[in-house]
Amino acid sequence: MQVTLNELAILLAALALAAPLARWLGIAAVLGYLVAGVLLGPFGAGALFSEQDAEQVLHFAEFGVVLLLFLIGLELRPKRLWAMRQAVFGLGTAQVLLTGFVLAVIGTLFFDTQWQPALFAGAALALSSTAFALQVMEENGELQTRHGRLGFSILLFQDLAAIPLIALAPYFAVTAKQLAPHIDYIAFARGIGTIAAVVIVGRYALDLLFRVVALSKVKEAMTAAALLTVVGITLIMEAIGLSASLGAFIAGALLAESSYRHELEADIAPFEGLLLGIFFTAIGMSLNLRLLISEPLLIVTLTATLILAKAVILFLLGRWQGLESGPARRLAFALSQGGEFAFVLLSVGRAAGVFGKQPSEILAVVVTLSMAMTPLLLMLDRLLFPKKAEPQRAFDAMPEKDGHVVIAGFDRFGQIIARVLRAKGIPFTALDISPTQIEFVRRFGNKAFFGDASRPEVLEAAQVGRARAFVLAIDNVEDSMRAAELVKSHYPHVPIYARARDRMHAMRLLDLGVKALRRETFLASLDLTRVLLLGLGYSERVADRTVQTFREHDERRLNEDYRLASDAEKLIERARSSHAMLEKLFEEDEIEEAKLAQAEKNQRDTKSKTRAGAA
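RESULT FIELD:
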């Protein structure tokens, strides 16, 4: 890369200023990088970088996209992906296919484009900006809502869909002589074989490599090994004609279950963030703003078409999934823009001959404008449909403690736990969000502190990091999940003992990795059922056995239902078969009970005969 030291200093200065300024202005860092690139590039006010410089910087910074795909692969743990499979592969597939098809039809009919480049461009524009959407939903506290989880699932599928699109770009190419390149089936088979070999060898070799490197306890060696893994597999992929991005994704997926996954993510993330920042800055340099002057009507029309088409499809899909109009609208606006991978795919498509320089430049400007419109659309939504905000009382000051138990939620459930701990002399800090509840329990000699355990500053004030355990007894399900996620992410060493409101709440806690949980009414209901059976004339042994059989069956079924959580039809089918299975278990218990009763009767008869003979 022929960039001088002065130009590198200017580029790094832009990166250092762009993200903080973007955050201060309330926009995504990606948009800040794009604006910085526009200002530095040949079409901006500064014109500090030529078009050749921008292309060289872009070529170098594409390794940031490679590292991004590696990190995406790391996050795709099979258990997590399987639990989300219906939303990811069902809703995500529907969004990408519908949006890509609609945009391709619009491009073919109204913009006189051949179907191959129109379809590729439609698929590229169907992908939203993960950085924009996740930031917006997180800032508004919507990631934990149902439409936030659906949005995350769609974004996850879009990240996955980008990989085959990158690899298949040459097959959408259109030239004057042929519509598509000839498919080399030998090369295709070689590619599949190489991928299979990499997966099989990497599955066993990579974890061993990192174990050996970790034994050296040299941090730089682990970082070098992580980068070597990404570079090595991408080089293998490129050698057989496949994309570097695909190789990076496979490398990440291979290490998704590795015990060194978190260490790898921590080592790679700074390089990925820096290079992605350079990549988006280079994209900004490459944006031909003269097109806004020469083709303003075309660009505005394309931008409006993109946002409207994606928003309408996302809104309808949200309603199809059972969302109310408000959440469906928020989902639609949050994901209505073009995304980071659109720039990647436009660059790949241009290199593969899918379309020429000017169409790719026009679409890049359209994607940028659509990203800039996202905050404005969401701001407009908040103005037209305002939410009533309730003022939050400051949380109470809490005493310094070490080795204590934190109880989040101090109603009937949390109070019972607190009484036992107090009787055993175990220190605890109880938190509750209701001032009335705090005042009520203090009248009876119980001390609790006002504080929302779903807020990180409250957990920090309660010294959760120094606690022996965290008891999750919050009544509200969403607040409970937010608190559990905060403790899991910020204090992973602190064990969580959770109260689940119902079966679905229990499944969400299981999905988060919380194993020690109890459904709040489950054991009490079983105990009352036992008393009922006794009142109906059953013996204590039958009542105990019936309740125990049901408890074991239901706890086993909970774990089985958890694996089917995203498939409603299979859950219904499972419920029906489970009822039949439970009836069968009870029948077996009755047969066993009859055998035991007969054995006892025979034993009594034998004893009676023995006593009669002795007499």
